[in-house]
Amino acid sequence: MSDATTQPQPEIRKGLVGVYADVSAISKVMPETNSLTYRGYAVQDLCENCSFEEVAYLLWNGELPTRAQLDAFRKEEAANRALSPRLLKAIEGYPRDAHPMDAIRTSVSLMGMEDPEVADVSDAATRRKAMRLLAKIPTAIAAAHRFSKGQAPVPPDPKLSFSENFFHVVFGKVPQPEVVKAFDVSLILYAEHTFNASTFTARTIASTGADIHAAITGAIGALKGPLHGGANEAVMHMLKEIGEPEKAAAWLEGKFDHRALVMGFGHRVYKSGDSRVPTMTKYAERMAEVVGDRRWMEISRILAAEMLRRKNIHPNLDFPAGPAYYLMGFEIPLFTPIFVASRITGWAAHVLEQMADNRLIRPLSWYTGVEQRPVVPLAQRG
Ligand SMILES: CC(=O)SCCNC(=O)CCNC(=O)[C@H](O)C(C)(C)COP(=O)(O)OP(=O)(O)OC[C@H]1O[C@@H](n2cnc3c(N)ncnc32)[C@H](O)[C@@H]1OP(=O)(O)O
Ligand SMILES: O=C([O-])CC(=O)C(=O)O
Question: What is the DSSP string of 214-237?
Fold first, then answer.
């Protein structure tokens, strides 16, 4: 019998809208004030005063590092950046046209098979594995990207900061400090955001007792979707499709006519503005000045104003991040992998938190299918 024939249907919150699934001490989203804190620090404050490495340390340890703690953290991260020759060879063998998100998902899965502590799900081993993932993910993203273009990978440089090294492994050079700072800020803004879909995926996988590589592989799969992390790529495709500021309003009107989604707008939790957008927009504007191309920010400005006026919908972080990465010189398919390189910090913090006080995540479904019925043997099914 279907559940519906025996009992009244309980309240079902489709998409788990508004459901508190657990407690967490990592970050807090306050939609009523459009604000976000990591371990009690406002994200804007962290962006102006800290490096991405300090924020990674904060997310994993609960406190900002002292100078000595930061030096040790940086040293360990830098020392773990290289990939094994076997992993590099596997990456070289990926299909040339594979999406970089599929490539990094597969690379993280392979890192798990190679990791000497893969089966150890203790807190200490999971922290060491999180560090190895943080360090190796940029190298793996860049290697797949370069192989796909017929270029040799650039070995990571342990003397460079996390953000400098990201540019180094992708392009073979580090841009001016202003560009590196804008990139570092984007990583801080992308690092953590409570129980979003990919983080919840990571926690669900960790709740089964599986290891962090399994959890992060699943999280990357969840992040790829255009309703989540994939939106930063979709935003840039949209801006390029519009092409010129004069065409933005008419283009949007066409979307309204078809009730289509406009990428980079809307959010499950923030309904009156994403806390991270003003900071990211400021740095995207700086990139437009550095590059001397205001077109994308001008189109963005018109879209944001019209979306607000016509639909009362605000942009989310992916909206300014897309053009910022484009202006920094990244190819569009690298945008969501950059999100991975940052969010590994938040994901790992949640995996550790889930493991520290675990209960298997297993909700219920309300059955609405056909009534129970006998199996008709194959010979009698016609
Ligand atoms: C880093 C991140 O992951 S941020 C999210 C990135 N994703 C995107 O930018 C994709 C575009 N946005 C969306 O698809 C949605 O806003 C989501 C998935 C982010 C949030 O979805 P929900 O919380 O389910 O929003 P919900 O569907 O309730 O939206 C309320 C109304 O606004 C509309 N709406 C929401 N976002 C958009 C949008 N981007 N374009 C047009 N209309 C929108 C919905 O259609 C809905 O209208 P209705 O009441 O007439 O049906
Ligand atoms: O919180 C969400 O649902 C999506 C988001 O903004 C993020 O993961 O950064």
Answer: HHHHHHHHHHTSTTTTTHHHHHHH
